[in-house]
Amino acid sequence: MAPTKIVKRNGKLEDFDVEKLKKALLRAGASEEVASDIARYVAARVHEGMTTDEIRRLVVTKLAAEDPAAAEAFRFYDRVAKGRITFEDGKMVVVEKGRLYLGREVRDIGPKGLSSVEEVEGILEELEEDLRYGVPRRTINARLYALYMAVLKTGKMNASDKKRAVEAINNFRARLGWKPYTPRKLG
Q: Is the pTM of this model over 0.70?
C-alpha cells in the first residue's frame, strides 16, 4: 500500500509519517503511551490530501484531552522551534503578561529554529514571568522540556552555543529545585 500523501504548509506533498508525529509528541513531553496512542489515533484518520494544519488540530485536540500540559508544551514548541503562533477562531490570542498562544489555526511568525543563546534566555525570562503570573509549575516544566528539545534540534546553533543554552535551562531548573537535563549529544 502506497503511503498517504499530506499537504504541508508550503503546499508541497509529503508522505504521512506516524513515527515523525510520535517523535514530535515525545519532544513536547507526552509520555510514550500517550504519544503512541495519539499517533495511532491520527494515523487512522489521515487521508490523502489532508493538510498538516488539519493533522495538527487532531493532535492538539486529542492531546489536550489526554495530557493538557503536553498539549500546551506542543503549542509552545511550535513557537520556539518552528517560529509559529496559533490562533483561536481565526484571531490571534496574545496574553501580554506571559505571552501565551492558544488555539486552532497556525501562522508562521519567523524563521524556523532557535538561533542563539540570547533567544533561549529571553524565553526563560518569559517563563519566569509566567511563574509570577500564576502559570502552574507543571506547565512551566512541560515548556522547559519543549524548549530543551528545541535547543537540541535546532541547526542554527553550534555545539558550544547549545551547551550554553542547556546550561541556562538547567540553571533555571535548579532555581526551581528540579533535576537538570543531561543531553547525550549536542551538535
A: no
